[in-house]
Amino acid sequence: QVQLVESGGGLVQAGGSLRLSCAASGRTFSKYVMGWFRQAPGEERVFVAAISWSGGNIYYADSVKGRFTISRDNAKNTVYLQMNSLKPEDTAVYYCAYSRNFSTRWYEYDYWGQGTQVTVSS
Question: What is the pLDDT of residues 83-93, one digit of tens each?
Answer without folding.
Answer: 999 999 999 99
